[in-house]
Amino acid sequence: MADGSGTDGTDTVYDVERFQFTDRATAYTANELLSTGSSATFIGTGDFAGTGQAGLLYVANGTATIALRSGNGFSSQAVQGAHMGAEWTAFGTGDFNHDGKADILWTNGSGQVAIWQMDGAALAKFGIPAGNMGREWRVAGIADANADGNADIIWQSNSGDAAVWSMSGTTLAGFGIPAGHMGSEWRLAEVGDFNGDHKADALWVSNSGDVSAWLLSGANLVAFNGNVGRMGSEWHVAGAGDVNGDGVSDLVWVSTNNSVEVWNMGGGRIGQIVDLNGRGGLEWHFGGVADMTGDGRADLVWTTDAGASQIWQLNGASVTVLSGSVAAGSVGAAAELDPAAPADAQFGFEDVSSEQLLPTAQPSGDLSPLLAAAPGGGDSGLLLPDVAAISAVGLELKQTHTFS
Ligand SMILES: [Ca+2]
Ligand SMILES: [Ca+2]
Ligand SMILES: [Ca+2]
Ligand SMILES: [Ca+2]
To answer: Could you tell me if 171 and 152 are in contact, meaning their C-beta atoms sit under 8 angstroms apart?
Structure first.
């Protein structure tokens, strides 16, 4: 609060998660406020600027927008001068040239990939590695398989084989097929270092929910763990990352009702199962596992189709949803009310004792000026005020309008 002590002047408020209006039966939650009308698709997380805090990647029609962490929120920037044709789909991110900055991997459905080497939101280099796996292969994951610091590309075939491309920037430096075969009922669901040797391993899930792990050294199959665990059909592997900071990738499962179970892994097996004390509504889609705060432990990221995002910091089973972590990722679209407010609606903050509306009217229902006034606003423009902080100083957010 810049000035919450009196009834006069303008107050700056922040971290609001919900607007509720007392003169009509309408409430807006943070994600509803941030309807962007954008066709951008959330792809994943990546530390594009090398700050230790991952950002978010959105793609629309072959162009990319990157939301870098900025203060408590995000600042979105389009990647300039870079566009991929309709045959290319953004798969995900990895640091292919070991410069500490995440790069973007595209696939074209016929066994080729393209790489954007990134420097923050700027395209530093573009390349198509000289390799082609054919249509029966798909990219299954991105991770460093041989511990040289460069992210590698792990493929799966329709018939249950895997292949590893060792990368050096945009160059295909090595190719290998691990001496193992899982069959077509298995899906290479995730890659990550599940035994802590700094080399990525492959995690397979069968149609019946059985889980097996291949411990890899580059493209060499070092060990096979056949019975890692089993999950019901309502669960899917949502991501992998080191959420407890022990140096070993952990596995994150999400159910059809958005419950979350974390397998803290060790030795390529389950060390501990943690069911999280938290569950988002079905408008939230699991976005990834990445360190968003720079504390060396991976966080969970959730996004909505409307362009909102949430960061969950985990401590065992407890979840802290970071305030102000809402991002539009909206490719520059203004934050607008959804559902639409009446044309004569005005928004402002009312002093509870005097019932005086403070002069922060938004006649159009466009909340951008209000949001941009929040700390860390401006280009992020996405931080919403904190209900508890407002009520502590006797203010309520109000919408007023005249029924006719
Ligand atoms: Ca890089
Ligand atoms: Ca590597
Ligand atoms: Ca490993
Ligand atoms: Ca771990």
So the answer is: no
d(C-alpha 263, C-alpha 244), whole Å? 10
Q: Using CA atoms, how far apart are residues 383 and 361, in angstroms rounded to an integer?
A: 18
Backbone φ/ψ region at 49: left (φ over 0), alpha (ψ -120 to 50), beta: alpha
> Which DSSP category does 366 fall into?
B
CA of 35 to the centre of ligand 2 (A): 39
Q: How far does residue 121's CA lie from ligand 1's centre (Å)?
A: 12
d(CA 145, CA 390): 50
The one-letter amino acid at 242: D
State the ligand closest to the CA atom of 169: 1
Query: Could you give the C-alpha distances from 196 to 26, 150, 176, 192, 300, in angstroms and in order?
Result: 50, 17, 22, 9, 20
Q: Structure tokens of 281?
A: 């509504």
CA distances for 51 relative to 147, 292, 344, 345, angstroms:
21, 10, 45, 42
Ligand found nearest the CA of 172: 2
Residues, Cβ < 5 Å to ion ligand 4: 242, 244, 246, 248, 250
Which listed ligand is nearest to 291 at the C-alpha?
A: 4
Write down the pTM of the prediction. 0.74
Q: What is the pLDDT of residues 134-178, one digit of tens each?
A: 999 999 999 999 999 999 999 999 999 999 999 999 999 999 999
**4-23 tens-digit pLDDT:** 333 333 333 333 444 444 43
Cα angle at 384 between 381 and 385, to 5 degrees? 130
